[in-house]
Design brief:
The protein has 145 residues and is mainly beta. It contains two helices and ten strands; from the N terminus they run H-E-E-E-E-E-E-E-H-E-E-E.
């Protein structure tokens, strides 16, 4: 029995690290921002690796379509990063249309290119519906060699 409890505790630790983040004007409710690929609340993203970011949220209104955007905020200037899947509905598990208050998880992986400089950066994630910016979160990241 003691071994079984230890396994449950260890599984709970590996499920995902809650990431430090700041709401930057979300219309929807941000429930959780996390990653299975980061070991610390401020993610240390190693060059040449891919990192999955997940954002649990509840839309403020009905959502029929959702566009996803990612920016690296460098010296206060948002620089767009192309996403492999800009359709937020697809990255939310094809859950469109969404109703207000639905539990939704957005999931997206980004590659940290070897050419990126090692530095501290803020990544801004935006999910824009036809009517509102449902999600806007800023996540500090440290790019390391």
């Amino acid at each position: 029995m003691r071994s079984f409890c230890l396994v449950l505790v260890l599984v709970g630790v590996v499920v995902g690290v809650d990431l430090t983040h700041k709401d930057c004007g979300s219309a929807g409710e941000i429930v959780r921002v996390f990653s299975d690929d980061c070991a610390d609340p401020v993610c240390k993203a190693k060059k040449g690796h891919s990192y999955q970011i997940q954002i649990e949220f509840k839309p403020s209104a009905a959502v029929n379509s959702l566009k996803a955007y990612c920016y690296g905020v460098i010296a206060g200037v948002p620089v767009p990063f192309p996403l492999p899947q800009p359709d937020g509905c697809v990255s939310c598990g094809n859950t469109c249309p969404m109703k207000p208050g639905d539990d939704v998880t957005y999931s997206q992986a980004l590659d940290v290119k070897s050419a990126y400089p090692a530095m501290k950066i803020v990544s801004r994630w935006v999910l824009q519906s036809d009517a509102a910016k449902e999600v806007c979160v800023e996540i500090p990241v440290v790019i390391v060699s």
